[in-house]
Specification:
Blueprint: H1 3-9, H2 37-45, H3 53-57, H4 68-93, H5 98-104, E1 108-110, E2 124-127, E3 131-134, H6 136-145, H7 151-155, H8 161-177, H9 183-186, E4 189-192, E5 199-201, H10 204-218, H11 227-234, H12 238-251
Helix pairs in contact: 2-11, 2-12, 4-10, 6-11, 8-10, 11-12
């Protein structure tokens, strides 16, 4: 892929780590103040899991059907669903390693360099019925950022980018395998109901939110994997990642920092299990 083609795909980013997460769309894309990657992840790691609701739903085609209270409630329920199935699989198979779990469940996991014949920037995907592709070009770029100032403490030594990606895609297999009972598939919204007729639809973003919670639980991370949207995009375009950072912060009700701004209170020290130190 040429640099020119990559720039074209990044204006705006059409698809990324976990589905649509492009920066603000319009006929003319704005320019963003580039932040250090450490600043971006430090600030985003402070956002509580449920406060990602507005960002997650901003990628949902049916977003306009919900108010903020409903988005938050559904986000909390999707998080609970993802955690529930993470614990079910971990208990049933006696392991939490996403790659080992995927192979135990019969999924075929491979690691091509980049996707073929795609019009989007992509880091990982699940293809029915049993394939998970982890695209290593983006993984390598992410790994190269792990030593940048502020990044190791914010993301913790618990982070394995490949396993985080596998965990997310594994949940989409779980959704398909348990589609008759899993909440992210059984929940429906009424679009319209003229007389005796009903038109109900699933809400796609609930599966994405649950997949985040699922891989967060398996990988024992203290922050939402939505942080990875901006972090992995940074490896391709610091400006595009900075635009995502601004959007994420604003939708979480927080003020984005400028590079010269004073940092907020330090992140708490975390023990080796990924939790906060006591």
């Amino acid at each position: 892929m040429t640099k020119e083609r990559l720039k074209e795909l990044l204006k705006p980013i059409a698809e990324g780590l976990f589905g649509p997460q492009g920066t603000r769309r319009g006929p003319v894309q704005p320019h963003y103040t580039v932040r250090p990657v450490g600043m971006i992840v430090e600030d985003l790691c402070r956002i509580p899991e449920e406060d990602w609701a507005k960002y997650a739903f901003s990628r949902e085609p049916l977003n306009g059907k919900f108010n903020d209270e409903q988005r938050r409630d559904l986000t909390c329920r999707a998080i609970a669903c993802g955690r529930e199935y993470a614990e079910k699989l971990a208990d049933r198979y006696g392991m939490r390693d996403p790659e080992k779990l995927a192979r135990k469940l019969g999924l075929k996991v491979d690691f091509p360099d980049m996707p073929q014949n795609t019009e989007r920037v992509l880091f990982a995907e699940f293809r029915e019925p049993d394939k998970v592709h982890i695209y290593m070009d983006g993984v390598r770029k992410g790994r190269a950022l792990l030593g940048e100032p502020g990044v190791p403490h914010a993301l913790t030594g618990q982070l394995d980018i490949t396993k985080l990606l596998i965990g997310h895609e594994l949940f989409h297999w779980v959704e398909e395998h348990y589609k008759k009972e899993i909440w992210t598939r059984t929940y429906k919204i009424e679009l319209w109901a003229p007389g005796p007729l009903h038109n109900r639809s699933g809400v796609a973003v609930l599966g994405e939110i649950a997949a985040m919670a699922f891989t967060k639980a398996l990988n024992n991370l203290p922050y939402s994997p939505y942080v990875m949207d901006a972090f992995l995009v940074y490896g391709y375009s610091p400006e595009a990642a900075s635009g995502l950072y601004e959007e994420m912060m604003q939708l979480a009700g927080r003020e984005p920092r400028l590079p010269q701004a004073e940092p907020p209170a330090a992140l708490p020290e975390r023990d080796m299990e990924g939790g906060e130190a006591r």
